[in-house]
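Technical appendix A lists one of the benchmark inputs used to test multi-chain prediction within the project. The record comprises three sequence entries:
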Amino acid sequence: MANFLVWVVWVLAAFACLASALAVVSFRNPFYSALSLIANLGSLAVLFLLLSGEFVAAGQVLVYGGAVMVMFLFVIAYLGDRSEESPWSGGPSWLAVGAVLAGGAILAEVIVVVGLSTGNLLSKPQHIERSFGSPASIGTLFLTDHLLAFEVTSIVLLVAAVGGVVLGAHARRIDPLEHPHPERADARA
Amino acid sequence: MTAATWTCLLLPLASVIVITIGGTHISRRAAGVISTVTTFGSFAAACVCLGILLSEPSYDRAHTTTSWTWLSAGQYHFGLSLLTDQLSVMMMLIVSGVGGLIVLYSLGYMHGENEERRYFAYMSLFVFSMLLLVQGANLLLLLAGWGMVGLSSYLLIGFYQERPSAIAAAKKAFVMNAIGDATFALALFLLVQQTGTLNYSTVFALAPHHGAAANLIALGLLGGAVAKSAQIPLHTWLPDAMEGPTPVSALIHAATMVTAGVYLIVRCFPLFEHAYFVQDLAAGLGAATLLMAGLIALVQVDIKRVIAYSTMSQIGYMFVAAGLGAYANAMFHLMTHAFFKALLFLAAGLVIHAVAGEQDIHKLRGVGKLMPRTRAAFLIGSLALVGIFPFAGFFSKDEILASALASGWYGHILYVVGMIGAFLTGLYTFRLFFIVFTGEPSAFAREHYHAHRGQEGPFSMLIVVFVLAVLSTISGWIQWEPMWGLVSKWLDPVAPPLVVPTSRDDWLSSAVALVMAISGAAVAWAIYSAKRLEAPKPWAVLEHKFYWDEIYDVVFYRSSDLLARSLGALVERPLINGSLAALGVGVSTGARELGRAQTGLVRSYALALAGGLAVLLVVFVAVK
Amino acid sequence: MHGPEIQWYVALAALLFTVGALGVMLRRSPLIILLSVEIMLNSANLLLIAFSRLHAREDGQIFAISVMAVAAAEVVVGLGMIVALGRRNVELDVDKLRTLRG
């Protein structure tokens, strides 16, 4: 019974995940794409829970869905309506063909290859404790085995914040695209 | 002995170095004096060597002195060794003695010329090189001296650098000598392969006795000798070499360098005796040259060219002797020839110097009346050259003819050629004498003659001519076989003579030779002096020197020019230039095509990434 | 473990990745491209968590958290650029933004 329930939840979550991913890629309005991505993140969080990754699931919803996607939505709102008329067209013809081929190749390879070569390795998940994936154990690992990753990640975030400020602040200065010859404009006026 | 040998060799080298480094800090006169003194110093050292050798028994007269091992490669070792034996001492004396006299003469002749110091440096270089050649104890040093002598000759022929004809003549001499050097070197390679060394004694003992190797070795050596001594077919450079100053012609192209070939054959006679064909070839080439040169000399109008062809002819005699095996006889003729040929050149030089550098015999007609002492000297030289008793040439030339007579049917042919040559020698020599030195002076001579302080030339020139005249008169007497044979006895252990004319047949042949020579002189007198006979018109083939130069031009120069031009058009321009140009074009085309991947389109870059990922996945899995 | 085995998660992650890759290659708006990149990152995260469960080691989850942090940083910078472009009224079309070429 438990197994059956898990299967049902899995199928629903997987379906939602794929559908929302396709939606992200297909909408013309970027606002709708961003909302679909939030749905994608949610379904992925459910899948994480199925895999006993409670902390990661919570983090996914809070950080990814709550912070990153909100930022996305803010920016899309700020930029205004940027819907595209024909989202899938444009560019040289070989691009579309090549993209489909490459994507299909990657898909086939991953499934076939991973299936072929790791057939027997994948069939026996190990036994886990109750505390597997709990915040306590994740936190312990972060502060002992993977301390360096922890610290470096914080630096990466700092640099990104600085970069964001810099990128955002520049636009206030001289803008050569809008005012090509400011002196001459003054002289004529 | 060691000290004397090394002194003899190194004094001229010291002179070269001092004059070169001194440059303009030493006066011109000083350069000349340094050169002269060192050359006479070498002569003194050579005399010391002679004295020491004389005090030793005749079988024990070969001394080798080595300073250090010069070249050491695997099992081959070549030392910087000098050999002092009878043959080398004879050559040392001739080279340094006649060389010293000629350098002394140059003090007067070259006085006031441009770049006198350079001249004396080159002369000392030449003396050093020639001494190295004759004193070396192995063939490698001989080759070194051989090459340096060729270099000095090139430098001295082209001494008057402003004259294009002089430069061309110098190049011609050097190139023809280089051909001889190449065959010489090939022979040395074979020798090293066969015997593993180049020391005279070892090589002569171990050389192959018959077969292809022996013949090739001898042929290679003969090639070198022929080039250096201006025999057919490598003779065309010698007349052109008269572009150099007269003392140079006297020293290098009469007395010493051109006789280096004869020295080589005599020194290496064991190698030649293993190859009969090559010996006969040497004698044959000598005979052909002596005849051809004698004929050409009949029509020359430049005073120095006549004497040059005469040199070629006399060396032909020496080659005949060496080819027949009469080594000491050849060396004897070499010695007397050095004296009287140098005398002839230097006397001609007195004339040239006094008459503003003119060399055309018709313009110089009758200058003998203005310069009687020179005329006397030239007469002595001519008599010696033609072989009139009691002058030097008689003794030496006779021995050669007698050797020819004693050498079978081939020798008889050579004998006849030699007789004809004697007639021709008389004819052209006295033609020259009668035209230039007898009769009334021409207008040109009278107008341009200027005496040097009342004398016919500077003292340094006159004294040398005098000494050489004396030597030309008496030097033949040291080898008069019925009484004594100093030269052949001296050289016997090293270079044996073939025959000594003692029998009645030999006396007869001497008489016939004398008659031929005198009749040649008589004909010349009849045509040119007494004007009893009409001078015949010169044949075109003689005037063009048997067309040798023209043939060489077509066969060698034009064909290689054609080859070079066609290779340039067919190979170099399309293939080499073309391939380089194509390389450039290919690189730029390839770069342009590759550049088309830089589209600026982000999506195409993403496609490239995805495609690469797809490929890499397969690769990773396949490798695992 | 109940439910599907690891192969299913691997297949799902592969599909997600392919969808994201197609989105990057075939859409012209930089916003959508950035969102597609997020999809790809998430598919990688899914794989990491799945294998972490398989081997019963939490290191995979640690890795996934780091990936999340880096993705956030990347989004910050990407959006900053898009905002800068948008302020200048440049058309947000990657086919037109071509001046960075060799």
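Chain C touches chain A through 76 residues (CB under 8 Å). Chain C has a mean pLDDT of 88. Comparable benchmark entries are summarised in Table A2.
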